[in-house]
Structures are given as structure tokens and as C-alpha cells.
Amino acid sequence: MTKDQVISIDIGNASIKILHIEKVAGVLRLIGAGVTSNPDPDNPQQVAGAIKKLWNQLGIKYNLFNKHRIEIGISLPRGFVVTKRLSNLPPATQEAQLPSMVAMAAETELPFPVQDAIYTYHDIQRSPDALSVELVSTRRETVGRYIDILKEGGISPTAVIPSMYAISAVAHNSLPNSAERTIIVDIGAGNTEFCLMYGNKLQFSRRISVNGDQLTELFETEMELETEEAELEKRQVPADQTPTRTWSRRFIAELVRSIAAAEREVNGGGPMEISEIRLCGGGAQVPELAQNCQQQLQIPTRVWNPLLAGALDTTSPSIPSIESYGNSLAIPLGVGVHLLETEKPVSLIPKEVGEKRAEFGRKRQQVLAAAASGIAILTIVFGSLTWSKTQSSKADKLDREIANITQEQTLANKQLTLDLVVADKLTHQISPVDILHTLSTLFNDRTKIAWRTFEVKNLDDLTKTRITFNVRANSNDSIISMDRSLRNSKLFSKIETGETTTTGDPRRPTFEVKISCQIDKTAIQKFAQKRNPKPVIEFIKVEPENEDANLEEVNISPPQNREISNENVEEDR
Fold first, then answer.
1. CA-to-CA distance for 152 and 557, rounded, in angstroms?
2. CA-to-CA distance for 83 and 162, rounded, in angstroms?
3. Which of 408, 397, 348 is nearest to 121 (CA)?
4. What is the rounded distance in angstroms from the CA atom of residue 118 to the CA atom of residue 179?
5. Average pLDDT of span 98-110
6. Dist. CA 354–CA 346, nearest whole Å
7. Considering only CA atoms, which of 469, 437, 466, 440 is closest in space to residue 453?
8. Three-state SS for 482?
9. Over residues 82-92, mean pLDDT
């Protein structure tokens, strides 16, 4: 069934935004909108708590009876996404063969190992002599961190949308389908997105390294203010006055650099005419920033409110006034528009997550079908019993049949109970290979961490198991990061890090340390799921009287290592 509602979530460094959008008779309508501060971007539990609190404040109903109609999309910043045009595909490739052809090409074109990547493709262009697609990819661990945050709050996303496609989706209706080029810049607290639109289509995008948090830090250092005071003060000082002037100059320089990168990418290095620059996001509220950009770049520049772009109806009386923060909603709004309006959305959701959701949908249909059959059977039985009051001869026969069915059902229930007990007792046996594979996944950068020794004792009894290994690192920070990753993984306990020693050239020393730990008692199921990633059968108890019941069980806690803002992924792509 086609989805007709979207809940879009944007997790920023400073704030978290949730929009609830529906499509009725071809018209998009905003059901609810909310913004809350991000308590600590580096603490997944606090972020998940803030998301769940905002979710509940919006009164979102997401349960067994309506979840098949609702998409839950989360945005992924441009800085984590790599795009590349694959133009060397065979022109005669059939539609059914295209996924396998793209998979073969992706193995050589992805900037990181294919097993560590999630990718998709779109914008298929065919001609008699050529076939090309745009490959969109990111690191699997990056998407995993965002998904784990939502799961921590009891929310299962169905789509992960790169932010540039969200921005282009919400801008589509307000831009002419012509040869004019428009630049849209979304200035967030931690991420600034640059999108070049050719007509109403996205032609080029990149991440800009100047953001709102940097302006706040500038006020903190130069005016000796606390963070909250700096956040308020930066909204009062114009772009051409100290200390905002320093930040705005860097911002304009980045705009010039981005325009040059776009000219190299789409125009062969030649100059191109820009009709307009639109600024949105929290950073666009810096006083006189648009005027300053227009004066320096000689390009018409204005602050843009995506809510007024004509993408959806925002007149619902149940929604409080959102004009004050409307220009910061381009990305979450675009996520919803992209999912509801695009036939094949550009989503980087892991394949296994999509398969699990599909399996859940099939089970849901089976449960509903079984429930309907049960009601029909009860209706028939009740009618038969009522009719039997006037036909005593048939009543005796019917009673015997019901007794036989009841007896068979009782025996079947007992057998099923025994089978479930046996299945529950089957325990996955952890092997040294499981441990080595997990450590290799946690610390896959051999330029920072290298193993020297590895020893496992008493693996048959997890209460006595002891894992010991010596590692060599390129810095003490790498050892600290490794210790933190071990603790955040929830797979190991009683972690003890020995004394760090240094060897080698004093100018480039090598750090060595001995680490010992045990396997956490809850790790057995997690190791089993990693070794056998098959769909898990879920037994769901339907309770119609409690529509807010959480029907999905989250078994894996998210990793705690959140260094999202420090990742560097080919920003010019």
C-alpha cells in the first residue's frame, strides 16, 4: 500500500526537528511540527530521550494499525555522503540487470570498502551510445549511529535521506523549470549545505565548513560570554560588525570557493551566471548577512523561508505559529516532500533494515488475517450454538465436534509451548573468531591501532572468560578512543587498561598498552545476530485498547562512539 504520511526527523548539533506530513487528494498538509534543543550531540541516550519527548508532545500515533501507511525518514548531512556519476555502463543494459551492473561498478568507484558502505543510485540517463547513473553512498557505521539513536527511543526509521535531496525537494515547487541557476545555502549549527539548482533540479551540492557553532564560539572567546549568552548576542550583531564580521567573511569566502567548485564540476571550469542566492537555516538569521553577501558577491541574495515555498499546506489550526523558526525547517520538510512526492526516493537505509520491515509487514498481515478468521469462526460457532437450541439432535453432534477440536487445540498448544521452550534454550556458542571479528570491526583502521598479541581463556564459561591483548598505537588518543569504543560497544565488561609505554623514535613514538576484559553476559545474542543475520520471528500481542503500545522490541543498544561531526567525506563531491 502506498504511504500517505511521513514523519521526518532532523538531528542537528543545536536542535532536533520533527515534522508530521500527510498527503490527501494529491495535496501535502502539515499535521504537526516541533523543535527542541539537542541536549548533548555526543550522548545517544540523551538525544534519543529528547526525540521521544518531542514525539510524544506532537501526539504521534504509530502502532500496528497505521504503521503500514507511515514512513519515518531521517536526514543525513551532506558531509557524510559521496556522489559520483557512473557513465561507463553498457547502453543496452536492461532495467532488471541495472542493479547488478551498478553493484559491479560500485566496487571500484566507492571511496571506501564495499562491505563498509551503503549505496544506491538514481537519475538514470540513457542514450543510444551511453547509460549513466548517479551513485550515492555513505559509510554503514554512519547510518548505523543515526538508526541506533532512533531505536533507543523506540522508533524504527524506514528511510535515510541525504540532506541535499531534501533541500532540492522542498525548493522544487518554488523554482522555475528553466535554465536559471539558483544557490540554496542551509546554515545549520554543525552543518552548512550548499546546493546549486539548475531550474528546479539539483545539479551540484557540497558541505561548507563554516557553520553556526563557529560563530557562537567566536562570541564566547572574543566577548568572553557563556554559551547561552553568545547564542543570544550573535542574533543581534550585524554581519559587518565585530566579531560577526570575521565569521561572515569566512562564510562568503566559502561561497566563492563552492561556486568555483560547481563551475569545475558542471561547467568545465568556465564561469556561470547565478540568478539568486537563498539563505535558510538558523545561521541565516544573522542580521544583514544576506545584504552583506549580495554586496560582496554582486548576486541577489535573500533569506528564504521554505514553509512559504508552496510545497505544502501549513494552515492547520492545530499547529502553533512556526514563523519564528520556519526558515530552519528546509531539511526535515524536504525529507517529507521527497518521500511523498518521489516515485523512487534516494534512501540510504541498510538493506537488512528494509528486509526486516518487509518481514514485519508480512507478519502483520498474517496476524490480521488470523484475527479476522478467528472472528469469523467465533461468529459461526456462536450462530451454530444458537441454532442448536431448536435442534437437539444436531446439538449433540456439534458438541462432540467442538470437544474434539478443543482437545486437539490443547494438545497443539502444549506441543507449541514445549517447542518454544526448547528453542529458547538453544544458546549460541561464542568462538575466538567472533571476538576477533568484533574487535576488527571496532578498530578497522590499522594505521592507528595494531594488535601484537591476543589470548582468550575459559571461553566455555563466560563468568570466567578472560580476554587479553597487547596493542600498538600511533598516539595516546587512539588508545583512549579504543578504550571508549570497547566500553560503548556493550559487548565487553570489566575492561582494564594497563600502563601505556612508548617506544621508537622520540619524535614519532609508538604507544603500547595491554588490555584485558571479559565478555558481557548480554553479548551472546548480539554475537549470534552478527554471525547469522536472519530475520527474527516476533510474536506480537495485539492490544487494540492501547494504541500507544510499543510493538517493536529493540534488542541492540546503539554504540556510544558518536564522532559524527568529525567525519570527513570528500566535501567537493
1. 7
2. 10
3. 348
4. 33
5. 89
6. 14
7. 469
8. helix
9. 87
Report d(CA 445, CA 374) in Å as an integer.
56
Taking the C-alpha atoms of residue 411 and residue 92, their distance in angstroms, rounded to an integer, is: 60
Joined together, the cell numbers standing for residue 377 give 469462526
Cell readout for 529 is 545476530
pTM of the model: 0.63
Amino acid at 201: K
CA distance 364 to 260: 52
> In angstroms, what CA-CA distances link 363 with 68, 368, 532?
12, 9, 20
Looking at residue 539, its amino acid is F
- Provide the b/e sequence for 530-567 (b: ≥16 CB within 10 Å): eeeeeeeeeeeeeeeeeeeeebbeeeebbbbbbebbee
Split at pLDDT 50, 70, 90, the class of 527 is: confident
User: Could you tell me how far CA 75 lies from the centroid of its own chain?
Assistant: 6
SS3 56: helix
User: What DSSP line would sit under 244-267, residue for residue?
Assistant: HHHHHHHHHHHHHHHHHHHHHHHS
Q: What's the distance, CA 409 to chain centroid?
A: 45
Nearest to 487 by CA among 524, 423, 442, 454: 442
Q: Are 97 and 42 in contact (CB under 8 A)?
A: no
Percent over 70 (pLDDT), the chain: 81
Which cell numbers hold the place of 27?
A: 495535496
